[in-house]
Design a protein that fits this description.
Largest sheet: 6 strands, antiparallel
Structural class: alpha+beta
Helix content: 40-55%
Pfam families: GAF_2, HATPase_c, HisKA_3
Keywords: Kinase, Transferase, Two-component regulatory system
InterPro entries: GAF, GAF-like_dom_sf, HATPase_C_sf, HATPase_dom, Sensor_HK_TwoCompSys, Sig_transdc_His_kin_sub3_dim/P
Number of helices: 9
Organism: Prauserella endophytica
Protein name: GAF domain-containing protein
Radius of gyration: 33 Å
Low-confidence stretches: 166-173, 244-253
Distance between the termini: 61 Å
Mean pLDDT: 78
Length: about 375
């Protein structure tokens, strides 16, 4: 290979490496690869084709004066490009339309070209496809040194792109895990503290209602409403953080220990009620999918919140069970029942949660029998 050409190829490969590892769009990196290949080979057209599992190759990027209709063009595995992409040796032809190795599979869009060269894009286990270059009909054929340069360049550029895609995938996994960690801390720590503070304020308001002037009581009520609104906003943020679907190679949301979550919710409710609710746990609750656990936890929190705020109960029992059908939650109290306006407003979103998740929610409440809140959720 000529020293000047080798130096240009090295410079181009360095630029591509920097671009690929910076996390740029792979499509932009392919564009840079094919542009440099065309310039280094003094070609009128450069094309990168990516190989599919069935051996066919598809044009992913092209550079030249006439690329209309090329992107997305598919060539069969038996074509010259397909054979090179499968790991064969480079192929060089003086005229792509008349050489018996290439002529059978030349699409109409490439019939105005003559000299042709194809080199594997990548190497060994990191072979992505094929890099091809063309010159106009009757132009000088590609020299041996140019083909040697093209082969080395295509090999290095393909490996760099494959490594960069792996690095970007690892970065996406790390980013997703960090988003999940932030979401979990918001949900499990911040929301829990705001929830407890809101219930404490509400308890103070109910106990000291007669001592408050009207304006002070109103302001305290507004503060409680703002806390409730903040909790909903944080829950919305949690959903947004978790909303991007992880790619197939990324980890799914970590499982949640629902038993520990239930103990925490019951402990907070007990501090506000002045007595510890009874908690009964059964079945394996340590590996519940995070999304399902969030639904159960929200139902438990809402049910206990209503016991604290409205029931006046002296006994509360929480039952959490996992069986082959899924997870079943029951919260029973011996209080005065849930006020009608609360049943319509505060518990409506639990019914919506259950319906959206394929589960079931129901509530039985009366002044004489107390309240039963039930929330069932399948895990399959």
């Amino acid at each position: 290979m000529e020293p000047t050409l080798a130096a240009r190829a090295l410079s181009a490969a360095t630029e591509i490496t920097t671009t690929a590892l910076s996390g740029d769009d792979p499509g932009a990196v392919l564009g840079s690869v094919v542009r440099h290949a065309a310039e280094l080979a003094d070609a009128d057209l450069g094309v990168v084709m990516v190989r599919a599992d069935d051996g066919r190759v598809t044009v992913e990027s092209a550079h030249g004066a006439d690329t209309a209709g090329l992107l997305g063009l598919v060539l069969p595995a038996e074509s010259a490009a397909g054979r090179v992409a499968a790991g064969g040796q480079p192929i060089v032809a003086e005229d792509v339309t008349s050489d018996p190795r290439t002529s059978r599979f030349v699409p109409e869009e490439l019939r105005s070209y003559g000299p042709f060269a194809a080199a594997p894009f990548g190497k060994g286990g990191r072979l992505l496809g094929v890099l091809t270059v063309y010159r106009r009909r009757d132009a000088e054929p590609f020299s041996a040194s140019t083909v040697e340069m093209l082969t080395a360049f295509a090999s290095q550029a393909g490996i760099v792109l494959a490594l960069a895609e792996g690095a970007n995938a690892r970065h996406r996994v790390t980013l997703y895990q960090e988003r999940e960690r932030i979401a979990r801390e918001l949900h499990d720590v911040i929301v829990q503290r705001l929830y407890a503070a809101g219930m404490q304020l509400d308890r103070v308001r109910r106990r000291m209602r007669r001592r408050f002037a009207g304006a002070d009581g109103t302001r305290l009520g507004e503060a409680i409403d703002q806390l409730d609104q903040t909790i909903e906003e944080i829950r919305g943020t949690v959903r947004a953080l978790r909303s991007p679907e992880p790619e197939p190679h990324e980890p799914q949301s970590a499982a949640t220990d629902l038993a520990e979550s239930a103990r925490s919710e019951v402990r907070i409710a007990g501090e506000l009620l002045g007595y510890p609710p009874t908690l009964e746990l059964s079945g394996e609750l340590a590996d519940i999918p995070a999304e399902r656990a969030d639904h159960i936890r929200a139902a438990l929190r809402e049910a206990l919140s209503n016991v604290v705020r409205h029931s006046g109960a002296s006994e509360t029992r929480v039952t959490l069970q996992r069986d082959k059908e899924g997870v079943r939650l029951r919260v029973r109290d011996n209080g005065c029942g849930v006020p009608r306006d609360v049943a319509q407003r505060g518990l409506r979103h639990l019914s919506e949660r259950a319906e959206a998740a394929g589960g079931r929610f129901f509530i039985n409440s009366s002044p004489s029998l107390g309240t039963l809140v039930a929330f069932d959720l399948p895990l399959g």
